[in-house]
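Table 4 source record.
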Amino acid sequence: MNTKPSLKPNNPLFSSGPCPKRPGWNLSVLSDAILGRSHRSKKALERINKVILLIRETLDIPSDYHIGIVPASDTGAIEMLLWNLLGEKSVDVLAWESFGNDWVKDIVNQLKIENTRVLTSEYGDIVDLSKVDFNNDVVFTWNGTTSGVCVPNGDWIEDDRKGLTICDATSAVYSMDLPWYKLDATTFSWQKVLGGEAQHGVIVLSPRTLNRLESFKAERPIPKIFQLMNKSSVNKKLFLGNTINTPSMLCIEDVLDSLKWVQKIGGLKKTIEFSNKNLSIVEKKIKESSWLDFLAKEQKTRSCTSICLKVKSALPETINQDILKNNLSELLKYLEENNIAHDISSYRDAPVGIRVWGGATVNYKDIDILLDWLEWGYHEYIKKEK
């Protein structure tokens, strides 16, 4: 496509975190926020509990699972669980992109868990899931935000496992179908598919996980913001809205709006449908791209949220790598300056390419238009040799 596109995306925001707000969002949705009050006041607790209730309802989380809002986004949530839960059993930790590798470093270098087995693969691949040992605790990301590679489903997780499954699901929740009975300890941040604000994490714990917390005491210091226990018992107040530290009531009000939006449009089924539609648009058009292809090597592991595209392998053979990177930088600069697309560069550790957020708050028509601009950009910027 050499012709310059005549249309621009209605919303040029495609960031993979924090992600675009829901359609129609404006500042007025924050007008009822509980400001200038203690987060432990009755009114504030009612708001926080409403968030927990709507998360349970919209994700269809089992009634005997516990949901809590915790500090420091998804990173704080997953590290809270690693620090509290690991050590009783051997560990299998799976990694195929940057954040999974961060959890490897936590477990191997920081916690120094004995008998840890690290299963890794390169960007675009996924580990051999058939080799996972469920006699061990298993730590994994459901969706690789920086590689665009996700587990295909939960069928590989054994029902009668001896260990716990600890899942970082931050860029999967609300866009992928999560089998909760397969997941013992799950984390996410509402800044992803819900388009909420940063710095708040969510933990979802099964009865098996609560049993572990009360039967096993990790022989390590637990910082205050990671503490799930009150002496020898789980701190149940955390799951009733009594957060460990002070939450932003503005963020609470904002995510309440997001959750009500999910309900209004038809619930989880609809948010998954929106995300899959976004992926299907990319799958259809990328076949004709002059320079881009999916980073994920298998169709069944392609993410519908963090859609990662790599430069076709033949291109670096015809264009010097440094020139290619510079040309891509110039194209991205043009797209930002002209309000066509913001924040679509690949993650800093990932192969050179494009990353487009396909979560439910993004309209498929905007992705469709963006892909036309990327094809135009190949002819105007990418293939130039100087």
